[in-house]
Amino acid sequence: MKEMIQKTIEDLLSVMGFAGNVYLNEEQEGLRVNIETEDASFLIGQAGTNLMCLQQLVKKIIEKKNESKNQQFISFILDVNNYRKHKIEILRNLANSTAEKVLSERRAVILPSMNAFERKIIHTSLTNYQNILTESQGEEPDRKIIVRLQNII
After folding, report:
1. Res 68 pLDDT > 80
2. Of 4, 26, 107, 130, which residue has the fewest beta carbons closer than 10 angstroms?
3. Are 144 and 138 in contact, with CB atoms under 8 Å apart?
4. 74: Cα within 13 Å, side-chain hemisphere
5. Least confident of 16-25, 61-70, 132-141
6. Using only C-alpha atoms, what is the Rg of the chain?
7. Pair type for strands 30-36 and 76-80
Protein backbone atom coordinates (compact mmCIF):
# COMPACT_ATOMS: atom_id res chain seq x y z
CA MET A 1 0.00 0.00 0.00
CA LYS A 2 2.80 2.44 0.87
CA GLU A 3 4.41 1.87 -2.51
CA MET A 4 1.05 2.58 -4.17
CA ILE A 5 0.74 5.87 -2.28
CA GLN A 6 4.25 6.95 -3.19
CA LYS A 7 3.91 5.98 -6.86
CA THR A 8 0.50 7.67 -7.15
CA ILE A 9 1.89 10.94 -5.78
CA GLU A 10 4.98 10.76 -8.00
CA ASP A 11 2.80 10.12 -11.08
CA LEU A 12 0.41 12.92 -10.14
CA LEU A 13 3.26 15.40 -9.68
CA SER A 14 4.65 14.41 -13.08
CA VAL A 15 1.29 14.85 -14.81
CA MET A 16 0.86 18.24 -13.13
CA GLY A 17 4.34 19.31 -14.28
CA PHE A 18 5.97 19.56 -10.84
CA ALA A 19 9.37 18.16 -9.91
CA GLY A 20 9.86 16.77 -6.43
CA ASN A 21 10.82 13.84 -4.27
CA VAL A 22 8.30 11.89 -2.20
CA TYR A 23 9.28 10.54 1.22
CA LEU A 24 7.20 8.31 3.51
CA ASN A 25 7.72 8.31 7.28
CA GLU A 26 5.94 6.35 10.00
CA GLU A 27 5.27 8.75 12.85
CA GLN A 28 3.28 8.71 16.07
CA GLU A 29 0.21 10.13 14.28
CA GLY A 30 0.54 7.62 11.43
CA LEU A 31 2.01 7.67 7.95
CA ARG A 32 3.29 11.06 6.80
CA VAL A 33 4.08 11.60 3.14
CA ASN A 34 6.27 14.62 2.46
CA ILE A 35 6.88 16.07 -0.99
CA GLU A 36 10.14 18.01 -1.20
CA THR A 37 9.98 20.46 -4.07
CA GLU A 38 10.92 23.93 -5.23
CA ASP A 39 7.29 24.37 -6.34
CA ALA A 40 6.00 24.32 -2.76
CA SER A 41 4.04 27.57 -2.93
CA PHE A 42 1.88 26.23 -5.78
CA LEU A 43 1.27 22.89 -4.10
CA ILE A 44 0.54 24.41 -0.68
CA GLY A 45 -1.56 27.37 -1.84
CA GLN A 46 -2.90 30.15 0.35
CA ALA A 47 -3.21 28.91 3.96
CA GLY A 48 -2.71 25.32 2.74
CA THR A 49 -5.87 25.15 0.63
CA ASN A 50 -4.16 23.54 -2.39
CA LEU A 51 -2.45 21.03 -0.11
CA MET A 52 -5.78 20.02 1.44
CA CYS A 53 -7.27 19.56 -2.04
CA LEU A 54 -4.22 17.61 -3.19
CA GLN A 55 -4.54 15.31 -0.17
CA GLN A 56 -8.21 14.65 -0.99
CA LEU A 57 -7.38 13.98 -4.65
CA VAL A 58 -4.61 11.52 -3.79
CA LYS A 59 -6.86 9.82 -1.22
CA LYS A 60 -9.63 9.34 -3.82
CA ILE A 61 -7.18 7.99 -6.41
CA ILE A 62 -5.74 5.52 -3.87
CA GLU A 63 -9.23 4.42 -2.79
CA LYS A 64 -10.20 3.84 -6.42
CA LYS A 65 -7.02 1.85 -7.17
CA ASN A 66 -7.48 -0.09 -3.94
CA GLU A 67 -11.04 -1.23 -4.73
CA SER A 68 -9.83 -3.90 -7.11
CA LYS A 69 -6.99 -5.10 -4.86
CA ASN A 70 -9.04 -5.52 -1.65
CA GLN A 71 -6.19 -4.14 0.47
CA GLN A 72 -6.85 -2.27 3.69
CA PHE A 73 -6.62 1.49 3.17
CA ILE A 74 -3.79 3.23 5.03
CA SER A 75 -4.59 6.69 6.30
CA PHE A 76 -1.86 9.23 5.65
CA ILE A 77 -1.07 12.92 5.97
CA LEU A 78 0.25 14.60 2.86
CA ASP A 79 2.76 17.38 3.40
CA VAL A 80 4.88 19.65 1.21
CA ASN A 81 8.31 20.78 2.44
CA ASN A 82 7.15 20.00 6.01
CA TYR A 83 4.55 22.81 5.86
CA ARG A 84 1.93 20.85 7.81
CA LYS A 85 4.47 19.50 10.29
CA HIS A 86 5.52 23.05 11.19
CA LYS A 87 1.90 24.21 11.21
CA ILE A 88 0.99 21.43 13.65
CA GLU A 89 3.84 22.44 15.97
CA ILE A 90 2.66 26.07 15.89
CA LEU A 91 -0.95 25.03 16.61
CA ARG A 92 0.08 22.75 19.49
CA ASN A 93 2.08 25.61 21.00
CA LEU A 94 -0.93 27.92 20.55
CA ALA A 95 -3.19 25.35 22.22
CA ASN A 96 -0.90 24.93 25.21
CA SER A 97 -0.31 28.65 25.71
CA THR A 98 -4.05 29.29 25.41
CA ALA A 99 -4.81 26.61 28.00
CA GLU A 100 -2.26 28.12 30.38
CA LYS A 101 -3.81 31.56 29.85
CA VAL A 102 -7.31 30.21 30.55
CA LEU A 103 -6.07 28.48 33.70
CA SER A 104 -4.17 31.51 35.00
CA GLU A 105 -6.73 34.20 34.10
CA ARG A 106 -9.74 31.96 34.80
CA ARG A 107 -11.60 33.22 31.74
CA ALA A 108 -12.48 31.81 28.33
CA VAL A 109 -10.40 32.58 25.26
CA ILE A 110 -11.76 32.64 21.71
CA LEU A 111 -9.20 31.66 19.08
CA PRO A 112 -9.21 33.08 15.54
CA SER A 113 -11.11 31.34 12.73
CA MET A 114 -9.55 28.06 11.65
CA ASN A 115 -10.22 25.34 9.13
CA ALA A 116 -11.28 21.85 10.26
CA PHE A 117 -7.74 20.44 10.17
CA GLU A 118 -6.43 23.24 12.41
CA ARG A 119 -9.35 22.98 14.84
CA LYS A 120 -8.80 19.24 15.17
CA ILE A 121 -5.17 19.84 16.18
CA ILE A 122 -6.26 22.34 18.86
CA HIS A 123 -9.02 20.09 20.23
CA THR A 124 -6.72 17.04 20.29
CA SER A 125 -3.85 18.96 21.90
CA LEU A 126 -6.05 20.09 24.77
CA THR A 127 -7.55 16.71 25.66
CA ASN A 128 -4.74 16.21 28.20
CA TYR A 129 -5.85 19.22 30.26
CA GLN A 130 -8.33 17.98 32.88
CA ASN A 131 -10.05 21.31 33.59
CA ILE A 132 -10.12 22.68 30.04
CA LEU A 133 -12.98 22.32 27.57
CA THR A 134 -12.94 23.26 23.90
CA GLU A 135 -15.82 23.77 21.54
CA SER A 136 -16.15 25.00 17.99
CA GLN A 137 -18.71 27.70 17.26
CA GLY A 138 -19.82 29.55 14.17
CA GLU A 139 -20.19 28.66 10.53
CA GLU A 140 -17.47 27.89 8.00
CA PRO A 141 -15.25 29.66 7.08
CA ASP A 142 -15.48 31.69 10.32
CA ARG A 143 -15.64 28.73 12.70
CA LYS A 144 -13.70 29.42 15.91
CA ILE A 145 -12.68 27.49 19.00
CA ILE A 146 -13.60 28.61 22.49
CA VAL A 147 -11.21 27.37 25.19
CA ARG A 148 -12.62 27.59 28.70
CA LEU A 149 -12.50 26.15 32.16
CA GLN A 150 -14.74 23.16 32.71
CA ASN A 151 -16.89 24.85 35.35
CA ILE A 152 -17.41 28.15 33.47
CA ILE A 153 -20.46 28.34 31.21
Report:
1. no
2. 130
3. yes
4. 18
5. 61-70
6. 18
7. parallel
Task: Give the domains, in start order, of the chain with CATH numbers.
Answer: 2-81 (3.30.300.20), 87-149 (3.30.1370.50)
Could you tell me if 123 and 146 are in contact, meaning their C-beta atoms sit under 8 angstroms apart? Answer: no
Report the alpha-carbon distance of residue 129 to residue 150 in Å, rounded.
Answer: 10
CB neighbour list of residue 97: distance below 8 Å, 6 or more residues apart: none
pTM of the model: 0.80
User: Which residues are bridge partners to 26 per DSSP?
Assistant: 31
Give residue 59's pLDDT band: very low, low, confident or very high (50, 70, 90).
very high
How high does pLDDT run on average in the chain? 91
**Rounded-to-10 torsion of CA 137, 143, 144, 148:** 20
- Which amino acid type is present at position 48? G
Partner residues linked to 80 by β-bridges: 35
